[in-house]
Design goal:
Domain Major facilitator superfamily (MFS) profile: 1-66
Number of helices: 2
InterPro entries: MFS_dom, MFS_trans_sf
Number of strands: 0
Distance between the termini: 23 Å
Largest sheet: none
Radius of gyration: 17 Å
Organism: Pseudovibrio denitrificans
Helix content: over 70%
Keywords: Membrane, Transmembrane, Transmembrane helix
Protein name: Major facilitator superfamily (MFS) profile domain-containing protein
Amino acid sequence: MTPLLWVIIALRAAQGTLVAFSAVGARAIVADCYESSERFKTANWMTIAWVTGPILSPALGGYLQV
């Protein structure tokens, strides 16, 4: 939506920074709330959620658009 390349680059940098903050925050919450084996199980479920979101979102977005 913008013809200026530097705006796109700046917004992508902001997007990457904010996603990194949320990922680190989520891992810190898991580390603080769970102990040993429960921590590993919860971290695995969190990783699955982070991976399947970008995979499923285009199909879900297309379905909702129609």
